[in-house]
């Protein structure tokens, strides 16, 4: 695996497809939060493990369930974004400039500075932007994995401790959500619908960026296939403009009136 050189289009499309599945699951978690927060807290953090959901679910789950599901879901999509950043470094940086006012200028002002700052960012908040940019700016995979996994464990531990300390206020919030479940579900549906609308309509949305990567891969493969076909057949040109071996006649890159080796340009017929 080489930096800046994506593998086959099927691998890239599979990675992009998994990223879209992860995003869809997170949206479902937001959509059904009011319906499952007190009934299926494990399902809630499996769909969307943001800190808010972890805090709402932690006191309703055993430690094993909480850490197992929370850890698996939090780290599931991070390697996918790292791979996209590894394969599409410059485009990943350009995408971040459009998507984030915080990290984008920092990248362009100095990639070396961001690489130093990326270590605590990976540990504290390894979101999709941070994961992609870590690879794009040269953070090694083993460093990324070590920071990501250790930071995720610390994050889960802190949220669980906070949940225990503030268990009473958190339970009040859960009871409020359960009491007004239907209105909150309607509001959640509106908010998720607006988010999806923005993803499909926005030129710089994450979904559009992922779709453009897939389209670029298709165009690249098509262009490569076209270039490979040039030069096949009788009399067709090769990629550098010369005729294939075994054909006769001047190449288009040659001047037919140019004298050949051994002839003088001033010679006249006898």
Task: Note down, in words, how this protein is organized.
The chain is built from 14 helices and no strands. The chain has 270 residues and is an all-alpha fold. It has one domain (9-220). Helix 4 (51-58) packs across helix 11.
Strand tally is 0
Structural class: mainly alpha
β content, as a range? under 5%
* Morphology call: globular
Total helix count? 14
Which whole number gives the mean pLDDT? 78
Spatial gap, N to C terminus: 66 Å
Largest sheet: none
Total tally of structural domains: 1
Low-confidence stretches: 226-244, 251-270
Roughly how many Å is the radius of gyration? 28 Å
- The SSE order reads HHHHHHHHHHHHHH
Helix content: over 70%
Salient structural properties:
single chain; 270 residues; mainly alpha
Brief write-up:
By secondary structure, the protein is an all-alpha fold. The protein has one domain.
Secondary structure: elements and pairs:
Elements: H1 9-31, H2 33-36, H3 41-47, H4 51-58, H5 63-76, H6 78-87, H7 89-99, H8 103-109, H9 111-124, H10 128-136, H11 141-165, H12 167-179, H13 181-201, H14 206-229
